[in-house]
């Protein structure tokens, strides 16, 4: 069976396909006006008349939110709380700014409606819903040309009666309706309302997009990637669109975890450096999940793979600020005008610095499809260096050093700040610019090993091929320690489990392939952040242990509480093991070496061998300094590094002098 | 030694990363919602003299006052490795009693002098005193809670339990305090550890050099910013509503003198210190001034001691902006600090009118509620501040329902509140049409209405209930804030500062002030 993974990105739409033992990749320029166009063109190119299965990471929901181009949405909530989404958490995004600029609410005041009726935290109804108010409301909604509706009432997760009633009344409008207890049955009204509202806001855009694809792709063979690292059917994606936000980076992290596991690397820090930003994620055997994401300033509380993004990439601009400090990013030259070496840019970027130092080979960029211009870079580098009273090469290495510090800080945030020692991990590098920085970054963090997969430029699409079906369920229960009997937890979990089994069967997963993983969000009484702990016989001990790891202390005498129950439901299809290639000995064949160039490392110009990565074979070893070129990326091997091609074609770089 | 622009940036990143990591640790491990959900805390790094090297962007009111705490701790108590000194004495390095600072030295092996200090400060929701929440309508510091002069809480790695037990016996919610103090200790341990790693990697000499260079860097940025302001003397007056005891306004006056790349702020003509708790100690005035000038720098500069160097501040001891022992100061930190900002920005508006926005709500609307929770039989103590309207500027309307200037704490979610306290929130909305009119409109305040489900003592410390947030360049002022009790359907208007007992079923309704408008409204 032909399986195709597709990841729509800002510049390129990436395809990867697998058909029995055969595998291939394909890249097309994206079509931002109508993203389906590039997807369909690529699918036709790869599949021809053959039938296929498709897993797709779409940016439709993300872009609708980033560009504020979602549906005309109404919000129905409790009377007196209509402005909740405007107030948010009452904080401002920037501390030292004379005028505060807040993120505007996705629904303006005129489309926010409050209804009388109130539920208490216990689930008790204190004030009945005034159903007579619903008639005029329906008229108003019809008159306002609303495309989508979100309903979010206080404590609806404790008692959904009022939300369900409202939903029933709204049915006659024939519009998509998102009820907060169904989107996210968890406490903290602003975050729940925001998540529900985003779902309602992006759903009609998703519907339009999927309908266009379904004109050509059979609906039951068509799956959508979610930000939690799993896939769902296109049908489910229409109802739960918020779960598809940021699915591209999730595909990357999933690809890293899967490839790493295959090669025996279970502890990874994934490092995806692109043109304008870098995504990092810590994988300790499993993909990390967070429920505290914020996208474009709006909280999204559904579980997502925990990916941290910083504004440093190949296109980050270097400049001397007026206080005399070298700044690199967050401004980026982007694709237009791009770095100076692309021909049109005027400001020095990280990519220019790499080129100046000889780490990027001018005639090997994108397989030679694009020629870089070193002369222009040299001129700009000398001018800025003179201004800073530095040697030009010193400046170029400085630009890389500053960019690397930003990325080092990003990696410390996801490791050290969460109680992990990065030295115990392998740095898994991908993205267009990752390979040029990975070894230096690893040395900064004293990480002994770097792994660079085959085709690092399309890893996200590749990750999608590996995606299980995953559905997440949660329910706020707020149980004190004395209420935590196994029987009680079991009975509370039952409705979630029942729902999960129905949903997964509907997703086409046979019963025997369904796997349920119950989790608890726990905290010490009085705390306001929770830790996610797998439900096992020792969950209380696990909580104390995890608390000690993440926060540095635990107190087994302190009472704790379970805030939320969670259930992750997996549908794991059978998979073929990847094929190993036989080893070919340490010396690369002669045609693999393309020549040499002079590259600067720590102030020294070194004669540096250039290799074509696709001509390297399993078992080949290369001692740095060396540069490996391939279609979508360049890999820099500084001195004191040795690379070896593993049985799957991935590159493992060992840093000499860094102890593992 | 020549400064390298590359290393300058690299070190800047590293220093801030340490302060931020301390903050993450403190915010996450603390027990009380006040610290964790509302993030009412700050963390910073200091050199051997107590000059600030880096502060994580947390709460501006802690800006200038953190270094004074560290200096007070250094002066009062010699610290060896593993020690931590605690303090909250407003007349010895503190600001008001709920803000408790913990200072720790960083020692290198083989040195008998500390190389650095790390410190963190957190707002505790109760430190004893006459009303729950320790933000009372008081007349002397002794009514506001436990005064902690610089005292060792941790001695060579061991907590001094005698002192600790004594401390906990004097507060209303000792378990919560215990958890919060543990978090503060952890945050400092993290900071000490990371500083040690930094020095191990780069050597003390280089770390010292770049700590100093970063201060020079921030100083250069500040001097260039001041140099862009026309030279001259700019005067401005504003006032506090009252001290909560007399009906009289408390006038504040500032003469700002810009002379090339330096600024002199003379507060000598501000009123004498008052009976009520709106007195500000010098540290607060310093913080407010630093905040305003820091905002003038458009770039992202490190907040450190260098910023203060081009600024000279004159205050009159015994005045409301430089209060002396035993003045009541609970509200100085939260309310007077906001007015000092209004004063400084008002003066700057005369020098650079196009850049300065009108007055924001000018209050934090401090609300404390305490009593016995009938659900558990345990005492509870709740403290929260409320956002309001922001002032409009030359090109932008003011933002609505948000914290401005000296604070940026989060609200407590309604659902979190109702789980934790015997309350029901009956309204939480934007206070529409409360912003001042103008070419650009001031932002609106907000309305928060809470119904009590148990008998409780309520204290509100708020401002801008009789003197409105000013508009600028012809814009109108924002609406005054309003405090009310709703009892059996009857609304009772209450003053800006009060303490009262409420019964189950009573509602406390607070409407926060709007921001001032900017420019004349076009007709």
Structure description:
The complex is a heterodimer of chains A (660) and B (523). Chain A has 660 residues and is an alpha+beta fold. Chain A has three domains: 72-205, Dna Topoisomerase Vi A Subunit, Chain: A, domain 2 (3-Layer(aba) Sandwich), CATH 3.40.1360; 246-468 and 573-660, no CATH class; 469-571, 2-Layer Sandwich (Dna Ligase, domain 1). Chain A contains 16 helices and 34 strands. The two termini of chain A are 42 Å apart. The model of chain A has no long low-confidence stretch (mean pLDDT 92). Chain B is an alpha+beta fold. Chain B folds into two domains: 5-219, no CATH class; 357-523, no CATH class. Chain B has helices spanning 5-29, 33-36, 65-76, 161-169, 174-202, 204-227, 282-296, 332-351, 414-420; strands at 41-47, 52-55, 84-87, 99-107, 114-123, 151-155, 158-159, 232-240, 250-259, 262-266, 311-314, 366-372, 379-384, 423-431, 445-452, 456-461, 482-487, 490-494, 497-502, 507-511. In chain B, strands 2-1-5-4-3-6-7 form a seven-stranded antiparallel beta sheet, with helices on both faces. The longest helix of chain B is centred in the middle third of the chain and has 29 residues, at 174-202. Chain B is globular, with a radius of gyration of 22 Å. Chain B starts with a helix and ends in a 12-residue tail after the last strand. The model of chain B has no long low-confidence stretch (mean pLDDT 94).
Q: How would you summarize what this structure contains?
A:
Chain A has 660 residues and is an alpha+beta fold.
Can you give keywords for this protein?
heterodimer, A: 660 residues, alpha+beta, Dna Topoisomerase Vi A Subunit, Chain: A, domain 2, Dna Ligase, domain 1, 3 domains, eight-stranded mixed beta sheet, six-stranded mixed beta sheet, 34 strands, B: 523 residues, 2 domains, five-stranded antiparallel beta sheet, 9 helices, 20 strands, globular
Layout of SSEs?
The complex is a heterodimer of chains A (660) and B (523).
Chain A (H helix, E strand, L loop, with lengths): L1 E7 L3 E8 L2 E8 L5 H13 L4 E6 L2 H7 L6 E6 L5 H4 L24 E4 L2 E2 L5 E3 L6 H10 L4 E4 L9 H10 L6 E3 H4 L5 H26 L7 E4 L5 E3 H6 L7 H16 L4 E7 L4 E7 L4 E2 L2 E3 L2 E3 L3 E2 L2 E3 L5 E5 L5 E7 L17 H7 L17 H14 L4 H23 L11 E5 L3 H11 L4 E4 L6 H7 L3 E12 L5 H21 L7 E11 L6 E4 L4 H13 L8 E12 L21 E9 L2 E9 L8 E3 L2 E5 L2 E5 L3 E5 L5 E5 L5
Parallel strand pairs in A: 1-4, 4-11, 5-6, 5-9, 9-10, 13-22, 22-23, 29-31
Antiparallel strand pairs in A: 1-2, 2-3, 7-8, 11-12, 13-14, 14-19, 15-18, 16-17, 20-21, 23-34, 24-27, 25-26, 25-27, 28-29, 30-33, 31-32, 33-34
Helix pairs in contact in A: 2-7, 9-14, 10-11, 10-12, 11-12, 12-13
Chain B lengths: L4 H25 L3 H4 L4 E7 L4 E4 L9 H12 L7 E4 L11 E9 L6 E10 L27 E5 L2 E2 L1 H9 L4 H29 L1 H24 L4 E9 L9 E10 L2 E5 L15 H15 L14 E4 L17 H20 L14 E7 L6 E6 L29 H7 L2 E9 L13 E8 L3 E6 L20 E6 L2 E5 L2 E6 L4 E5 L12
Parallel strand pairs in B: 10-11
Antiparallel strand pairs in B: 1-2, 1-5, 3-4, 3-6, 4-5, 6-7, 8-9, 9-10, 12-13, 12-16, 14-15, 15-20, 16-19, 17-18, 17-20
